[in-house]
Amino acid sequence: MHDVITALNADPHDPNKVHVFVDGKHRVAVSLDVAAAERLTVGQPCTPERLQGLHAAQEMNDIFEKALNFLSYRPRSEREVEQRLRKKSYTPEQIEAVMLRLRKRGYVDDREFARFWVTNRMSFSPRGPRLLRSELRQKGVSQDIVDEILAESAETQVELRAQAEQIAADNDEVPDEEPVLGTDLANAITLARKRVRLLSNLDPQTARRRLSNFLTRRGYDYSIIDAVIRKVLVPEEVDYDE
Description:
Elements: E1 5-10, E2 17-22, E3 25-31, H1 32-37, H2 48-71, H3 78-87, H4 92-104, H5 110-124, H6 129-138, H7 143-170, H8 184-196, H9 204-217, H10 222-232
Antiparallel strand pairs: 1-2, 2-3
């Protein structure tokens, strides 16, 4: 009898790999996932066409594993993963098949990616909604999702402020003059206080202009910038009639 799987041997160096022997000859090495998906067993027919299919299945599995490795460092948008795979010169059909598999397993999700991006930025590298919007769009996240996630962030900030006010009221305290942590205003003030150290030798108007430009580049709107300048620069440094 020909074209029969005669052995399935574990790889001595890679516990995730199985060596497939057909008619006593080594033909292909596949991952355990591929072996399970193909339901490989000793004695099973393995024609040249089936063997070709095993090679193709293993190639797809290798591409999938490369995509997972890329995702292991941090969450990615779908566009980021697709661009990464295109750089590896995989075919459009292979890329689409891998992306479909990633979506089905929840490894790529632009909505969750956008939430991660906004939360991470707010915590470690603050920037305003305008710049966040630009960054997410550059990552390929749809306008609808960007709008949704930024609206969620704004709503969360409203809730944080309300909670802080309620806590102060419950304890008969005067609300803290400092903005609530985790809000755009608090983050912008933190950035400005670090920046203003570099502006201490400048005249007030120049310092104000440079601080305003800095916060604008960080994506904050006029209302936030104005509030920050009034908070960070001492009164005599602020020309309110300018």
